[in-house]
Amino acid sequence: xxxxxxxxxxxxxxxxxxxxxxxxxxxxxxxxxxxxxxxxxxxxxxxxxxxxxxxxxxxxxxxxxxxxxxxxxxxxxxxxxxxxxxxxxxxxxxxxxxxxxxxxxxxxxxxxxxxxxxxxxxxxxxxxxxxxxxxxxxxxxxxxxxxxxxxxxxxxxxxxxxxxxxxxxxxxxxxxxxxxxxxxxxxxxxxxxxxxxxxxxxxxxxxxxxxxxxxxxxxxxxxxxxxxxxxxxxxxxxxxxxxxxxxxxxxxxxxxxxxxxxxxxxxxxxxxxxxxxxxxxxxxxxxxxxxxxxxxxxxxxxxxxxxxxxxxxxxxxxxxxxxxxxxxxxxxxxxxxxxxxxxxxxxxxxxxxxxxxxxxxxxxxxxx
Length: 368
Known about the structure:
Elements lengths: L3 H15 L6 H15 L10 E5 L8 E7 L2 E8 L9 H14 L3 E5 L3 E6 L10 E6 L7 H6 L3 H5 L2 H22 L6 H10 L5 H10 L49 H7 L6 E7 L2 E9 L2 E4 L2 E3 L2 H13 L12 H4 L1 E3 L5 E3 H9 L14
Parallel strand pairs: 3-4
Antiparallel strand pairs: 1-2, 2-3, 4-5, 5-6, 7-8, 8-9, 9-10, 11-12
């Protein structure tokens, strides 16, 4: 995955170069949007990751990009030419209506520079479904932080859902408070204040509240910046594709999705038993790989990293409606600790083996 900050810098330069040339939608996609998708971890050439001109039914109008997790569309992106007026409600209405019908919660409308993110499932008018607006060309809008929520890994962890809930609740409370302390104060506030200071008349309290100019300062939810992948240097091995385990990886759309836990064990990259861990929402979760199809967490054995990860997350976030446990990519969720004390996702080992490289788990040294 490319460094998002570096890609956004390149795209920012392209926006400056092309913004007066009236480039079309296809050029906008190729030069401005696709590089960002790649930097966010989406394989635009893999149909299990991204489908272009997606139609849920043959009769539907196509969506420019449908991003998939576990073979289900998770995010729709509708592209417009650079410089298009994204505030036109007809575009938002069209894509949001289709997203709701398709059961897709998150929608992005973009001209390559501006991105408008919407929650189609929010039971509010269209204008209130808007989550955030950022502009790649304006770093003050924090494009890397917000676009990072659309990365493959962070969509998998539902971070955007958490931030949406916080901001949506704060928005409703803010508007309610403003209404209570408007120029014409709410009668309930007058009664409350009068009850606390009965020596004042109701008319005096009302007049005083009418002079108040209250401000309500809600914190802005900050998004952790995406970290670029660490560099890898190691020596070659030969992978025997016939020595596969039954543990299929979630996210097989990645090029190294063919590598299984059995492959890693056979190649010596994972030496069982191997302790794995994850610090998740303030809770330390620990498990152990005992075999290609045996991962032990909480005293119970599971046949895949993803199931064990889902059960681990369940102990923290509780029940997931309609599911036995939260959908989880075990490869990116679980981490192993190298000899130097640093933590690395197991997916790095899978990628290393795919690229015919070796990482020493025992001492953390990378050999070439």
